[in-house]
Model the fold of this input.
Amino acid sequence: MFSAVLLAGPTTKEAHAQASGQAVVDTASSYIGTPYGAYGLDCSGFTSAVFADLGVSIPDSPGGQYAYGMPSSAKAGDLVFFDEGGYGISHVGIATGYGTVIHSSTYFGEVVESDMSYISGYVGAVDAY
Done:
């Protein structure tokens, strides 16, 4: 019985992925309230800064970030992408894993956490970690 419980737990790789995703969300959350554009924090500048804080260098454009990493299902810490105007990827944020995204928003004028359904044109997600 005891060994069955051990086998049912997450593998080392799964546990690392969960911890890494949560570390990205925690770091992103620390930016909430930072004014849009401050310190170069447009949407992709924000996501680049979060990953840089964790020692990961990613491109500084939404399109470049979309091409980086592996396609994902918008788990905690994943980059999520939007085509708001119908002309290609125009916005990026960080999925929290429970239906919201932390992003640097021109609408709100700062880094905020919003329901993903409030941002039009969802394209997909990438695991950059």
